[in-house]
Amino acid sequence: MNATLALILNVLLSAFGLGTVLWFFWRAVKRSDAPVKFSLKVGLSILFVLFCLWLARLMGPFGPFLIVFMAIVMSVAWTPHIAAFLFNPLTNLFDGGREPPERKPYYSIAMAKQKQGHPVEAIVELRAQLAKFPNDFEGVLLLAGVLAVDMNDLPGAEITLNHFCDSPHAPVRQVVAALTQLADWHLKLAQDVDAARAALQQIVTRFPDTEFSLRAEQRLAHLGGTEKILLAAQDRQAVELPEGVKNIGLLESTEFLQPKEMAPGQVAAVYVKHLEQYPHDAEVREKLAVLYAKDFQRLDMATLELAQLINEPNHAPKQVVHWLNLLANFQIELGADMATVRATLEKIAARFPDLPQAEIVRRRLALLDSEFKGRQTTASVKLGVYEQNIGLKHGRPGGAGA
Q1: CA distance 328 to 338
Q2: What is the pTM of this model?
């Protein structure tokens, strides 16, 4: 029984040793620059060793000298391979080893051609690189830029970007960047507000309820002002100026000459009308909230506007923190109780515990008593010529004044 176990153990050890040798041989052949030559060298080395051992056995006392000669020959033949096997893991940390370099496009030649004023040659080079890497966003954007800016071919640039955006493998952020850049070119190069609006609308349509659509909607909301500026720059008509005031130095007062500002009620009405068309315009909605709080002393209406911004998804955390702090300031100034203010500020620490603003608001909460006493006014606020029930927001009940 013991002899049987010993035989099995010897067979297993021999198989393991043979497998180890074969594995090292296979790995060495795979990593070799010339696998056929390396395999031939291994075969010849094995035959040489076997021949030397057989000959040493026949030579009797002179056999050891032949073994030494065989060892010298084998060391000369295999030392480079052994050294490479031992030290390659260390040298690979510095030179990258045998890993092939990452395949990537090179646009330096095309960019140099563009800077030298040879856009056609730059386009040829860019198309050659994109033929190898058709989905590379950098190359697509460079090609579209040369077409739009250098060749004055905005339709060609639009076709290039739309072809990239229509690819099912195009990353969302790159598609948004391409459409945004296209909108900028329509405004800057062609003064075409409608085309810019169409490019931005693609973002809203393709990626609804995302941070990208929210930003696009906010840009869409302000394209009207951009259009007026562009039209004014193109259509410069002569303006008849009224005759100036005579003997202005002799007048007792010149207050009547000062331009009259719009009344707060008129400004609020403009903001409300704008938000009916562009409900996601955060800038105008914040201005409307400030107007309600500062000019009309209406905390309820300011709270409605700020709450819509705070609860709207996809806004940046810093913006939400800003609106929560603004709401807390209005609550202190317009007479809300301390529990309401504290609840507003605690939302910052609860929603964004990892932001630096969370630690700032914790310190503010610790000093809230002194801040509350210093900023809260006890005197009743007089609304002057404005009615308490402003009636500027259609469909919303007017709350009681602060």
Answers
A1: 10
A2: 0.60
